[in-house]
Design goal:
alpha+beta, about 120 residues
Length: about 120
């Protein structure tokens, strides 16, 4: 099993509680999985559960224990959370185009909407 990191440019759909509040985000999705294909399916499913649409795949990485020690503590935390829980994420959002002066807020995602039946 490996930790795969997919970095996506995403935007919230009308089904997302973030719709209208956030113009979009760069989402780092960390997945602990046996193959790249299975990891990508899990990452995309996760984004769909939270009603985010992928605009673009920005990059993907495969990280191991030796590499991760060279990264910031928050990055290391995502790596270890993916290894223990199977998936972890970090969204760096930006405001909608019509809002010029918006404060940045960092907070965890709530549980996905009740309509989501996926288990990660």
């Amino acid at each position: 099993m490996e930790v795969y990191v997919f970095v996506y440019h995403v935007k919230p759909t009308k089904g997302s509680p973030e719709y209208g509040k956030v113009g979009g985000a760069h989402a780092d999705i960390w997945v602990f999985e046996s193959s790249r294909g299975a990891a990508e399916i899990k990452a995309l499913s996760y984004l769909m559960d939270y009603a985010w649409e992928v605009i673009e795949v920005e990059r993907e990485l495969l990280l191991d224990e030796e590499q991760i020690v060279q990264y910031r503590p928050d990055v290391q935390a995502n790596y270890h959370q993916a290894k223990t829980r199977g998936i972890s994420s970090f969204f760096s959002g930006y405001p909608p185009e019509d809002l010029e002066d918006v404060a940045v807020e960092i907070r965890p995602l709530n549980k996905p909407p009740a309509s989501s039946g996926n288990k990660h």
